[in-house]
Prior knowledge:
The longest helix is centred in the middle third of the chain and has 24 residues, at 119-142. The protein has 15 helices and five strands. The radius of gyration is 22 Å and the shape is globular. Helix 6 (119-142) crosses helix 9 (162-171) and helix 9 (162-171) crosses helix 14 (323-342). It has one domain (71-359). The strands form two sheets. Strands 4-3-5 form a three-stranded antiparallel sheet. A two-stranded antiparallel ribbon has the order 1-2. It is of the alpha+beta class. The protein has helices spanning 6-14, 25-31, 71-76, 88-92, 95-105, 119-142, 147-150, 153-160, 162-171, 230-241, 249-253, 261-264, 307-314, 323-342, 356-359, and strands spanning 37-42, 54-59, 206-213, 218-225, 275-283. Strand 3 and strand 4 (218-225) form a beta hairpin. Helix content is 38%, strand content 10%.
Amino acid sequence: MLRGKLAVAREALENETPIADVDSRTLWAWSCRTNEIKQCWKMEEDAHDGGSDTDTLALDVESAEPPEPNTAVAEIVLDGVDCNMIKPSDLLSSPMWLSSACRLFRIDRGSDPISTVTQDEKDRADLLVKILRGRMHTFMNRRKVSKGRGKHWAITLAIKNMSVAAAYMILSRHVVDDLTCLDETECLLTSRTSQFTKCSLCADHEGAYLYYDANKSVWIRSGKVVGRGFGARNSEHIKEASKPKPSSDFYHYYPTSDCVRSKKSRAKRGLFDKLEQYVAAGFDSKCEVASYLNKGHGDGGILVLDVDDANNIKTSMKQNPNEIYKFRSFLAYQMELGYDIALAPASNVSSSFGFEGFVGLFGV
């Protein structure tokens, strides 16, 4: 019999274990949330055509009316968070943070990175973080983040660290040149894929990644992986996308070419085989900077952390005793979230908020 213990599901999410390998009814139910909805009802028999007593109607999930926004979430998103404490421009003006970021993420800004960062980049980074935080209200509503979950320390810390994501995105030149002419329905990332590194060139690195639909010229998903590399994660995606019954929206919209759904699905937006996986924010877990990600930005680290923040991360993921792994995970989740919010909502095929390893499957 399948077990429904939340701890089992949480551990599986923390370790990113394939759903098929987990004996958990809770995780199984979560994985089925995007399946087609079927409704059966009795119908009067037609004496003329000898019709069946029962008919089955398959409702297309895409055609369903969207739920009313959870307005309570918007009220608590920035509750208790001093968003002006650290600005992206502050990070980009810090020689220590800039050096650490360039070494960790292998950003080539010359031997003296601080001299290469322009005032325009700092201004754009400050504008970008405002846009990302502004979009987060709608983002959390769309992902159905409950009021309780929205107050979780991990989400509060993520909002504070959106400055880190914004500074990095500008530093890596992953953002459009002019942010002032875009609204919340549009993608903030540049369409110049040459600005990004293909994951296949650093398959053993971990962090945050992106998928690009070259057929439609749109970014369609962000993701994170820690404990193994981008290549291994891509292989797992391929395995899930090839299954007859998809376990998430991603696989629902992008089946593999050898999957039966690729021929029959009316919801298909493309083929997984044609997607390109790019690095959003990747790093080598064995590099020097990765070994002190538990330090705050002022002490050589990347994240904006105070003592309580660091303790919250240290005492999380109780099934995993590796402390640095937890900080690497938080950083990867942070970057995944920043890029997730930056995507155009209509093209974004993800339906999860993220931070599952910290917040839990269904939140608190």
